[in-house]
Predict the structure.
Amino acid sequence: MPDYDPLRSYMHNWFMSIHVKQYFIEFLAWEKFFLKCGQIRRIVELGSGMGGFSLFLYLHAGFRNASFYTWDVNAVHMATRPFAEKIGFSHHCYQGDVLKDEQTIEQIRNVLSLTGKTLLFCDNGHKATEVKLYVPSLKPGDYLAVHDWEHEIFPKHIEGLPLKAHDVEHIVELGCWTRFFEVTG
């Protein structure tokens, strides 16, 4: 028996042999979210890390005939692998500081304002700042997902924003650190 909980340890988790910083239980929460949220036109991820979870989201986007974009201050490691090039993943990875680089901020805001339902996933290093900076660009009916809920971002950071919790059953009880919200207006 391992000396860690394999469902709730991100130090030992991978997706398609690429390290991810999400618990395995997070994947279940995302599957439940995608089953309930209806048609999404684009997924925008802030904070790509090693690219394992980005690949998971990219595959979901492809399955839904949606666009996918991911930004990170560092080059996405996964984007350089031959497999990533083969499936077109590399063309959806952008390098830029999502909090300080005005050109990057403008690019992201332009994508968020496109017609159709958008999912914004904040998983960079400063989630509260990301939410404050980008939620105003979302449209009613869009979605926000944040990782590290009540660890790096707290309810006080979304107070006053036009968001309502999007219920995904049992995610709190299972120890999921991601929360989903729908933009209300």
Remarks:
- The longest helix spans residues 24-36.
- Strands lie at 14-15, 18-19, 42-46, 67-72, 93-95, 118-122, 143-146, 163-165, 179-183.
- The mean pLDDT is 88.
